[in-house]
Amino acid sequence: MSFLEITNIHHTYFTKTSANTALSDVSIQIEEGEFISFLGPSGCGKTTLLSIIAGLIAPTSGTIFLEKKPVKQSSHKIGYMLQQDYLFPWKTIEENIFLGLKLSNRLNDDTRKYTLELLQKMGLGPVEKLSPKQLSGGMRQRVALVRTLATEPKILMLDEPFSALDYQTKLKLEDLVSTTLKAFGKTAILVTHDIGEAIAMSDKIYLFAANPGRVHKTFIIPEELRNLTPFQARGHEQYTKVFQSIWKELESLEFRE
């Protein structure tokens, strides 16, 4: 069994007057340490699947296994990083990064030290006593990453975490997140609309079709790109070839719909 097993996931949202099938028969296997991207048009169920994997919502049918155990509810084994940093403005940076540990009753001298060291590694040591409003958007996202990693999750969910940033900051954070997760041997799933971001950061890309959401095609990123930082990967000749092949598949999906 793989590190993360997603088997025959089907999900329908029901209202009093309608039923909308967001996902249909989605099965994916993810190995420990892999960086995976879910790519596809709006409405293809990417974020719904992320929420199901995280245990935030239960699927209509199908199963999720993490380390051979069923995921039935939200767990500290799963970390979430979103487009918004969701730092509490009335708390200091130090208080914000300890929040997950406090909620899981795991804040002690050792975890406190580990988290502050993470902050230093992210180049944010001098800001621990500041408030979030005193930081730039990119710095706030780095704080959010520290808060997520502090609980030592087995797998990280990244739901378009760079989309609200300017392009230069976005590229810098892609490199920082990628190298950090590789250094910690973390498994990660990125939801994105950005083909280039998915190629530059991933080992494998699952392209989703919509109506209902389903896996249309899987792209394995060439090893030459996987061995580079995201910024370096964008300048490699293989990057353009992979981009064009994914673009053609996306266009074919649009034509069919």
* Main sheet: strand order: 6-7-8-3-9-10
End-to-end separation in angstroms reads 35 Å
Figure out the total of helices: 10
Give the helix/strand class: alpha/beta
Average of pLDDT:
91
CATH hierarchy class name of the largest domain: Alpha Beta
Order of helical and strand elements: EEEHEEEHHHHEHEHEEHHH
Query: What name is given to the CATH topology of the largest domain?
Result: Rossmann fold
Q: Just name the CATH architecture of the largest domain.
A: 3-Layer(aba) Sandwich
Which descriptor suits the 3D outline? globular
GO molecular function, one term: ATP hydrolysis activity
Enzyme class: hydrolase
Keywords: ATP-binding, Hydrolase, Nucleotide-binding, Transport
InterPro entries: AAA+_ATPase, ABC_transporter-like_ATP-bd, ABC_transporter-like_CS, ABC_transporter_ATP-bind, P-loop_NTPase
Tell me what the structure shows.
The protein is an alpha/beta fold and 257 residues long. 38% of the residues lie in helices and 25% in strands. The strands form two sheets. It has a six-stranded mixed β-sheet with strand order 6-7-8-3-9-10, with helices on both faces. Helix 4 (109-121) packs antiparallel against helix 5 (137-150) and helix 7 packs across helix 10 (237-256). The protein is globular and about 50 Å long. The model has no long low-confidence stretch (mean pLDDT 91). GO terms for molecular function: ATP binding; ATP hydrolysis activity. Its EC number is 3.6.3.-.
